[in-house]
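Morning. Coffee machine broken again, so started the prediction first thing and wrote up yesterday's gels while waiting. Chain of 149 residues, entered below exactly as on the submission form.
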Amino acid sequence: MLTISLERVVDILDKAQEVELPEPTPADDGAEAALEEAGAIDELLADDPAYQTLTSAVATLTPGEACDLLALALLERNAAELDEWQAMLEQAREVPEDQLADQIVETLLLTDDIELALERLGYIVDDEDEAEGDAEDSDADEEGEPEAE
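Came back before lunch.
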């Protein structure tokens, strides 16, 4: 169903999680509102190495892979049924190619839509940080250390 490998999606999701969004000030409607302005993402995060890594990774996607990622986001954002996958894919293909990467990056930074859609489609996306934390908890239990209450 997907032309992009799950491994590649997870790699891009991980890169997106490394980007730190600016903290909103009380006068702002939030960092997300500031980022939604045209060009604001590039302006606010231009010096962030994690952001540069993310945009580089997204730029290497083939058009089919990029459309898959955007279609995943559209599936979740539109609360579409799984049988509407083809319609979401077509909608993603209608986005002009020069805007595709920007829309993907914005979606990755502002929502969990892609990860949620993967789960709805039956793909398992493990969060490595959670998996490592679970392993450490289980090691502590086996060593006879008391659990924190």
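The CA atoms of residues 28 and 148 lie 38 Å apart. Going to sketch it on the whiteboard this afternoon.
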